[in-house]
Amino acid sequence: MLKGLCDICGKPAELFVCRRCGRRVCAEHYDKDSGLCTICKGSLPKPLPRGQLVPAENPTTVSPKDVRK
Ligand SMILES: [Zn+2]
Ligand SMILES: [Zn+2]
Q1: Helix locations, the chain, DSSP H
Q2: pLDDT per residue over 5-25, tens digit each?
Q3: Helix, coil or strand: residue 13
Q4: Which residue of 15, 18, 19, 66 shows the fewest CB atoms closer than 10 Å?
Q5: Is the Cβ–Cβ distance between 12 and 24 less than 8 Å?
Q6: Is 43 in contact with 36 (CB distance < 8 Å)?
Q7: Distance (Å, rounded) from C-alpha 17 to C-alpha 28?
Q8: 26 CA distance to ligand 2 centroid (A)?
Q9: Which residues surround the ion ligand 1 when the cut-off is CB under 5 Å?
């Protein structure tokens, strides 16, 4: 069992290592399902469901024909 200070909250606790950033975080800041700390989990891009509206700043959604009229 790994014990030390959580890299997120700084409290002494049993630690888990994030498999993405390597942070050592307490159970409160670790997601066992994904193996990620809450910071990495929060920054993960969520996959867009197909057929849904994509944000306008995404250039791949705008075809040149629509832009030049
Ligand atoms: Zn913590
Ligand atoms: Zn992480």
Answers
A1: 38-43, 64-67
A2: 999 999 999 999 999 999 999
A3: strand
A4: 66
A5: no
A6: no
A7: 12
A8: 12
A9: 6, 8-9, 26, 28-29
